[in-house]
Amino acid sequence: MKGEYLKRKYKEIEREEKDTLEIPDWQKEIVLQRLKEYHSNPENVLDWVDVQKEIETKYGF
User: Fold this and answer.
1) What is the pLDDT of residues 8-21, one digit of tens each?
2) What CA–CA distance (Å, rounded) separates 10 from 13?
3) Is the CB of residue 53 less than 8 Å from the CB of residue 59?
4) How far apart are CA 60 and CA 26, in angstroms?
């Protein structure tokens, strides 16, 4: 009985998340533009570790 309740509750939460987590079109456009830029010049990227170190140094984290 508890197992069925939890399954139903989980499904309900899943449906609510799908309704509330919609990505706005303007954000999708930004991602598409960045992907396009990456595909046109895949060598022009920053390594995350380097970026993280730079941020830590700059802001004292």
Assistant:
1) 888 888 887 766 77
2) 5
3) no
4) 33
CB 42 within 8 A of CB 49: no
Task: Please give the structure tokens belonging to residue 54.
Answer: 């730079």
* Mean pLDDT taken over the chain: 89
48's enclosing H/E stretch is helix 48-59
* Rounded-to-integer distance, Cα 31 and Cα 37, Å: 10
Q: How many residues does the chain have?
A: 61
Q: Which residue has the tokens 């802001």?
A: 59
Using an 8 Å Cβ cutoff, are 38 and 45 in contact? yes
Phi/psi-derived region of residue 60, left when phi > 0, alpha when psi is between -120 and 50, beta in every other case: left
In this prediction, residues 37-41 reach a mean pLDDT of 94
pLDDT at 1: 67
